[in-house]
Amino acid sequence: MNIPKELRYTKDHEWIRVEGDVAIIGITDFAQGELGDIVFVEIETEGEELETEEVFGTVEAVKTVSDLFMPVAGEVTAVNEDLADNPADVNEDPYGKGWMIKVKFSDASEIEGLMDAAAYEALVG
C-alpha cells in the first residue's frame, strides 16, 4: 500500500497536498483498494465554500457509493474534469492523475491537525 510521507490524511481516507495556499485533495490508495473498480466520480461543488468534514462529492464503485469529505474548510476552486471520462485514474494513480479537487483553504492550522503518513498507516494497519 502506498502512503506518501509528504501528504496529510484524514480518518475518512482522503489525502491532502499543500501547494502554497491551495490544497489538492483525493482519496488514498487504501480507499480506492477497498472500493474496488471506480466507475463514476461526481463532484458538483466547484466555487462553493465548504466546512471541514462536509461532503464535496461522491465516488461510485461497482458495488457501492461513498461520500467524499473535506479535510479542511475552504473554497473548491477546481475539479479534476478528467475523472468524468477516466474515473479509473483514481484506481491507477490516486495521488497523481486521480486527484479530485483543489481548495483555497481558510485556516492552515487545520492541516497540521491531520494525520501524517505514520499515523495514517497505523490507522489502516
How would you describe this protein?
- With 125 residues, the chain is α+β, with helices and mostly antiparallel strands.
- The protein has one domain (8-107): RNA polymerase II/Efflux pump adaptor protein, barrel-sandwich hybrid domain (OB fold (Dihydrolipoamide Acetyltransferase, E2P), Beta Barrel).
- The protein contains 5 helices and 9 strands, in the order βββαβββββααβαα.
- The protein has helices spanning 29-35, 82-85, 89-92, 109-112, 117-124; strands at 8-9, 14-19, 22-27, 38-42, 49-50, 55-61, 65-69, 74-79, 101-105.
- The protein has a 6-stranded antiparallel sheet. It has a 3-stranded antiparallel sheet with strand order 4-6-7, with no helix packed on it.
- Strand 6 (55-61) and strand 7 (65-69) form a beta hairpin.
- The longest helix is centred in the C-terminal third of the chain and has 8 residues, at 117-124.
- It is globular.
- The model has no long low-confidence stretch (mean pLDDT 96).
